[in-house]
Specification:
26 strands; single chain; phosphoprotein; PH-domain like; sterol binding; alpha+beta; seven-stranded antiparallel sheet
Length: 699
Amino acid sequence: SDHMENIYGYLMKYTNLVTGWQYRFFVLNNDAGLLEYFVNEQSRHLKPRGTLQLAGAVISPSDEDSHTFTVNAASGEQYKLRATDAKERQHWVSRLQICTQHHTEAIGKNNPPLKSRSFSLASQGSANSPGVQRRPSQNAVSFFNVGHHRLPTGKRVPIMQPDHLVDVREMMSQAEGQQRDLIRSIECLPVSGHLTSLDQDLLMLKATSMATMNCLNDCFHILQLQHASQQKGSLPAGTTISWLEPKISLANHFKNGAAQNFPAEINKPASVREEQSVAEPCQLTREHEEINPDEEVEDICDDKEDDLGAVEEQRSVILHLLSQLKLGMDLTRVVLPTFILEKRSLLEMYADFMSHPDLFIAITNGTTPEERMIRFVEYYLTSFHEGRKGAIAKKPYNPIIGETFHCSWRMPKSDVATDTGSNFSAHSPSEQVTLSKDLEGQTELDYYTVKFVAEQVSHHPPVSGFYAECVERKMCVNAHVWTKSKFLGMSIGVTMVGEGLLSLLEHGEEYTFSLPCAYARSILTVPWVELGGKVNINCVKTGYSASINFHTKPFYGGKLHRVTGEVKQNTTNTVVCRVQGEWNSVLEFTYSNGETKYVDLTKLSVTRKRVRPLERQGPFESRRLWQHVTESLRDGDIDKATEHKRALEERQRNEERLRAETETPWCTKYFLKEGDGWVYHKPLWKTVSAVQTQQMDTN
């Protein structure tokens, strides 16, 4: 076959953080099923610098760009490669996938029967760990020998007929029973000694067996759906079933809240059927909905997150991660176990960063640019404690595309720090009234209102936009965040890619800022959260900037959650404030005049946000969208929560596929794409600018 010819050429290979990307000469040896590389083409006759066995490998184009792809071998080794352009990447990926499939199928045909290769725990009882006994020469062939059935020679696999489903279900039930026996045998092993229940290879065996059974169950479910669809009516000859779940008609797809009940879904709870059938609003129903803060009430929800427990209590974390993750793997498309979820969406987590509105509003009350920058740094550093809901490494819900979250805060004016001489009358009374209808008739209110809105504007990559404003103080913040998660071995890292912009319209100042990385550490025991990385805050107009370092704990010694930073005037390079402490405990601010200020975050008052009652929320507002998952988690019913969560995810995939088939673009509701970022459709700076222009025309 022409597709099985050997190919070769230069690709860039990622080596490590120090050397980065390097050009290497790669050769695809189809006959041997090997991917080899050399320093250059001239050294091709020498021994390869590296070799990957392609049997059982996974070839994956990367989401980072159109040039990068990865080759994940069955042994766990990974090559991260980059072609010169998208066309060349596709050429390499397709040839590698063909070679991989050919050699993987060849291994399956040549495997001995399962009985002669069965793994016996009894034979290992007095021996060392299987990892110690593994031969250095073990390759992908021997790796795949364990646990494979071989069909009798010369027999072809018959086409699956409906009456065979009963036999398949019976065989799967037997396999599930054997898998449970395997798990129990491993868990009954002692926790110490030569072979323990926490042995890395046994954990991998448990994880792989569970992942295999999950995959088989999913495949069986597809067969059942196919059988059901054939019973409803015979399919035309040549019909290809690309996905066997019921699809929504395009007309109903555009109806917000249209419920579709399919016969195949009768056995599912009504709430699950609703989650799968409520269509995402798109072009025809993406009108901007202005939320009146007077409709919102103080939030009484107080979902405290329980401890995840030790590894012995929650082994599914290990099983799930070990069965799916490889070092450096992108976790964007990986479904994590439900019990590690927080009872809130990621969009609501961003709102909880605003839980100290008094410090937020006080920024604009600073009398000098230096004081305003320092106040912003103070607010910035105090936001993470409440936003994280403690140190337990639980994960908020992944928002689905089109999901929104609205809330507000009311802050008594007497509780906001002011300074003598602060000019709160920088704008005329007529401008104050014209600025927003929200202020009409409310000039005598004794509180400020901070409004917040967030929207999931993209699914792949996962990008969220959020915006908050205080109209009375003419200040607002706009940000977009792309959450990129990676598996790092004993931890999971989440990079917050994006930028925020704080606008103080009374002073004509804009502050740009970034967000730190987050890490879930000790994922095999009791996970905990750590922040890390350097962030910068900058105001071009005033020339003040801040540099903040979130320090990760060193392997030996050191403190947890440590943060340091400094504020300086760029023109003179003068440091005007230094800060140190822990981002979830006590912060110490030292000013240029020698004064020192301590902020105890554990004693800092938290202002409860105000949200609309659940029954008044739209179907795609976070709390209503995830209400059944949240209720199940509160009740401790993990299986039910998983079922509701899966229903939402399946609906999102179905509708994304439908949009692709009909070439229907997704339209956002509140945020517009500008360059590489996302901006709220009606930011305060545009409103103020329009008011000022109108006043100039009047004068």
